[in-house]
Known about the structure:
The complex is a heterodimer. Chain A has helices spanning 3-19, 30-39, 42-46, 69-78, 93-105. By secondary structure, chain A is mostly helical. Chain A has one domain (3-21, 28-107): Cytochrome Bc1 Complex, Chain D, domain 2 (Orthogonal Bundle), CATH 1.10.760. The longest helix of chain A has 17 residues, at 3-19. The termini of chain A are far apart. Chain B is α/β, with parallel strands linked by helices. Chain B is built from 23 helices and 18 strands. In chain B, helix 12 (300-313) links the parallel strand 7 and strand 8 (316-319). The interface between A and B is large, with 35 and 47 residues.
Amino acid sequence: xxxxxxxxxxxxxxxxxxxxxxxxxxxxxxxxxxxxxxxxxxxxxxxxxxxxxxxxxxxxxxxxxxxxxxxxxxxxxxxxxxxxxxxxxxxxxxxxxxxxxxxxxxxxxxxxxxxxxxxx
Amino acid sequence: xxxxxxxxxxxxxxxxxxxxxxxxxxxxxxxxxxxxxxxxxxxxxxxxxxxxxxxxxxxxxxxxxxxxxxxxxxxxxxxxxxxxxxxxxxxxxxxxxxxxxxxxxxxxxxxxxxxxxxxxxxxxxxxxxxxxxxxxxxxxxxxxxxxxxxxxxxxxxxxxxxxxxxxxxxxxxxxxxxxxxxxxxxxxxxxxxxxxxxxxxxxxxxxxxxxxxxxxxxxxxxxxxxxxxxxxxxxxxxxxxxxxxxxxxxxxxxxxxxxxxxxxxxxxxxxxxxxxxxxxxxxxxxxxxxxxxxxxxxxxxxxxxxxxxxxxxxxxxxxxxxxxxxxxxxxxxxxxxxxxxxxxxxxxxxxxxxxxxxxxxxxxxxxxxxxxxxxxxxxxxxxxxxxxxxxxxxxxxxxxxxxxxxxxxxxxxxxxxxxxxxxxxxxxxxxxxxxxxxxxxxxxxxxxxxxxxxxxxxxxxxxxxxxxxxxxxxxxxxxxxxxxxxxxxxxxxxxxxxxxxxxxxxxxxxxxxxxxxxxxxxxxxxxxxxxxxxxxxxxxxxxxxxxxxxxxxxxxxxxxxxxxxxxxxxxxxxxxxxxxxxxxxxxxxxxxxxxxxxxxxxxxxxxxxxxxxxxxxxxxxxxxxxxxxxxxxxxxxxxxxxxxxxxxxxxxxxxxxxxxx
Lengths: 120, 661
């Protein structure tokens, strides 16, 4: 198991402890999330669509992230690797949830095999 | 050297040689008395002595603030700077990117009139930083150094960052700085402000060698010496001070015939044979050898040799990209993650061996120093071949952290590869052939998988606006793929998409980057490289970051003025994006919301409000241009037109509004 997976697992556990105790989070707004994704600087390393970059996010893609919401939020709060953590004071829960909703709302990317320019 | 004065100056008419002989005599007179001084003959100097604190008379005061006298020139034979031109021509320096300045007016005139503006040919630059960076880029294509002329003070100050980039990038170039040494005779005002006792002290920490010739023969020796030092690995910049008097006065040979020393290249240093054998033994017996190359391939042959060594061992190769070391399409070219699997690592001309085998994460851990941990397995053997060890200076820290290695060779990697290949052949056990072939097969599979992942990543955000950098690279490719193309700028700021999507197989496919990370390198270095490619009939394509462009945008005019064809595609993310992320990181670490103002990034890091129109900027300086392009569907047709323009011999710029990286 990679260090990242261990960290994500711990993050998910922590998220369950922190977030699971309260009421379920309100549904996020993809529209607000798109604005927040820029406002809080997420786009800086991940691109405006969360497509990632080998230079700034080790190639990691968060476009339509497969992480559950709780794990995603906990990771953002606790990460201490290349990505700096965002505290709730800096990025409120609701705004973060909107960001998640934005990433999940993005259309599925085209299969590269269907793009002629990527099959030359 | 003293300048000749008009008679109205009522000052002694003293040439430098006369002054020097006079000075020597004066020294002797101090010990031997007036009788000895009187015996020096008709050329003896009898300087008028005035008290040091006397008030200036009207004539002197006028000289301080007035227009300097025009000193008659041309009498007494050819100018000293004509001889300098002969010396420069002997080294076959093709171009002279240069911003004009009065402190080298003598040699400037000689170069264009006596020298015929050929070898070197003036390339007019609007800033000394651009001139030096053009030399930098030119060398990385042509393999031959250029020279530039600068004011020894203000011009060299402008040039300094670009010289540091060349130093860090191990690139030879020659910087000649004008100065007027004789404080007693040089014109007052600007020429005096533009003179210094030791102009080269400004760049001595990051030049390989410098000198201040005091005679024409001294210049001839020092120029050829400087050229040879610069061109012996490790390649580095060199500097020479050019005295105005030495340039402007006629040649007086004083009975000694001036001569031009012949330039004979020094052979590059090779690894010691015992160390080469030990390195070969480790590599031949390794289970998972990995070769890491940064500035290893100085020439096309360097790349060929590296392929031969890698194939012999079926060793994975990580190309750190300081030079085009290894074909991107080769099955042994791998991602840096293979370093973690290695049991033997051969590092070739690495800028930073420590960071090659250690990870650093800027997360504030470790009392603020950041997380640091090894990337390699315990017991991994490290071999280094690096010529930089032969010439390192103390002040600037480009030598990076200290890394212990098991075999170290202070030698040029490319020059050492032939003997290393032979030693590996001799050391390879016969019973390891199957294991070596199996390594190759594993690499082929891993390479194919990595390619699929790359293409999947490129498809994300395909239709996005701002435009995905992957799409920008992919849209450009069909228009250049059938040309003999060369990427003359760095693609690191756009997630290296050209390097990941375009097959890079020739030693000029890309040129690496600045070396010193001094922003303002890319655009002028690209023009310099395009100048070299023009002469070779190659098509130059430059991916140009917007922040870098605005340091010396005047180089666009230089390209148009000198008809240097090249396609520049703006990677216009409207920010100093590295700094955008740094300030965000610090804000998060300090638990504060980054203040954006009306921008899209932390205040002080964005280039917007207003947005710069790079197409208009380029058009104003004589370029064909288009953009800003925000719809990816417009890229293909625009690139097609732009490529046709470049093929016709003009520079063309396409401004593309892009994703950050």
